[in-house]
Input
Amino acid sequence: EIVMMQSPATLSVSPGESATLSCRASQSVSSKLAWIQLRPGQAPRLLMYGASTRATGIPARFSASGSGTEFTLTISSLQSEDFAIYYCQQYTNWPLTFGGGTKVEIK
Amino acid sequence: EVQLVESGGGWVQPGRSLRLSCAGSGFTLGDYDMHWVRLVPGKGLEWISGISWNSGSILSEDSMKGRFTISRDNAKNSLYLEMNSPRPEDTALYYCARRMTGDLNWFFDLWGRGTLVTVSS
Output
């Protein structure tokens, strides 16, 4: 099983600032990595796939990069609706596995 | 509106059974592979099981095989998860999720809001 590790666990950011989240895989997942946003009481939302492709309807302030074992999600100019928990997910091997999540909170 | 709505969660005693349902609307669920994923308190997201559009292929996480059974009824636009002999560690928010089309796209482009399952005596 591929283990996904995210850091930091919590990120405190002021509205309008940017946030950089990291995801590391225990072995190469090539570019088969997705990012998901979870807000309390709402359905999870797919943000990115293929390591760097924005999903439909995702604003341009979300960007992502990486391949192999190291990945980054960047949120520029954080809006109130961006304070949430973010998970990475690899889909190169079964079982599909997720990172432990990064909570982006208001500073 | 395109959405998935889960139901059937609640409190269940260890060893009892529980059946979760997921209804799709605004799209034809039968055109997609569907999956169940859960959010475990303090642990994060865990993939449980997936079923192909025609029920011809089923994949499950090893530790949940034999305990959780996924099925679907395309005529009813519905997905199901039968939980047999649940354990306290199965307490979680259970989501159904739609797999994005494309042979190598094993990620999910549509999720429901989840249904909460609490396993306790």
Notes: Chain A has a mean pLDDT of 97.
